[in-house]
Amino acid sequence: MFTIFRGGIAAVVWTLLVGIQNLATAQTPEPGLERFYVGTYSGRIYVSSLNLGTESFGAISNAVTTTDPSFLAFSRNREFVYSVNEGPGTVSAFSVNQTNGTLKLLNSRSSSGGAPAHIVVDASGKNVLVANYNGGSVVVFPIQSDGKLGISTSKVQHPAGANAHCVTMDAANRFAFVCDKGLNQVRSYLFDPAAGTLTTNTTLITPLTKGSGPRHMAFEPEYKRAYVICELSSTVVGFNYDATNGILTPFQTNSTLPSGGFGGNTTAEIVVHPSGKFVYGSNRGHNTIVVYSVNAADGTLTLIQHQKTGATPRSFAIDPTGAFCIVAGQNSNDIRLYTIDQQTGLLTDTGKKLTASSPVCILPFLLRPPQPAITLSASGNALELNLGNALNMLTYQLYRSPSLNFGTNWTVLTTGAPGQTNFMLPKSLEPEFFQAGVLTNY
Asked: Model-level pTM?
């Protein structure tokens, strides 16, 4: 494997070679590997991995020891990790050792509020936005060229009784939405990434039913709709989204619990599947992941499953491929792995789990994508080339060469559309070899 760069985007090219003469696959492809970080209440950030072929975790180890590093976020280039530290009320920046995943503290700053609960890096990669739970405020910190956090550039303070719980950015990086559990509101702010500032949107407040306790919010992949999970009422509320004005309009409310309810439950995390076909939420107390199917026409949800988890599933993540759900059991001190049926969205417990002390956040990323397998077939005056072991989230390129040479004689033949795995080539091509590469900033 070697890496080339075009236009600042890394193109990872595998030496999976197929000769036009024999129309055969060159070798068995490797399945791909992910790495994920785990924020905790135990004074450390863990790091582990997930093998996509064997559906199993790698060893878990301590990436760094720090104070109360609960929620985590990546820089856009994944060279840095940022954490909120609830106990001391700080925000920290860490550099990533690309070889083994260990973290090194760069600097920390006061979050300018109490018990920071959530952190996000904006789409420009220039700013970190933090929600302070105690007192209810949102603060912006610029990211410096060396990955460190600069002095805050903006702070918005919510009214008395506020508990800001998360910040969610829209697709255009123009609006920032803040779920405020204490005020039973989602508040909308205009965001300027160049200046790192937040200003009040004309339509500032989206109210929720009293006693709901909105906690986390997630957009579907096209950003036409958003879903908010409410901690106190154990509900998920669906909203239509007007991207022009940053306005949310509710259209449905669903319970996260079975009919008849369940006493003592609170919800935590909500995630939309990368396909947009399913929505997942965590129930603490009932100790399940609730699964909904999504009506593609109007975004309405239909409950289809309650998957049992460890104790107090505070956080979980759908891995980047959409094939797995990784769940952190805060009180069972474990991390469990579930497969996702791509047709139905249903979860299946693999029985695989890791031991981790008080895990509260899962942050996965694709470390090495699955190696595409090339097959060729002749059809009339064309050659049909198909990529197996591919992912819909990636964009593939084909390279050509008249000889099996790992020098500089490989040239780009074509670049597919995102997720494209089938290519038609002219049969008049001279005998040559092909490579499949991934063109992406994953």
From this structure: 0.90
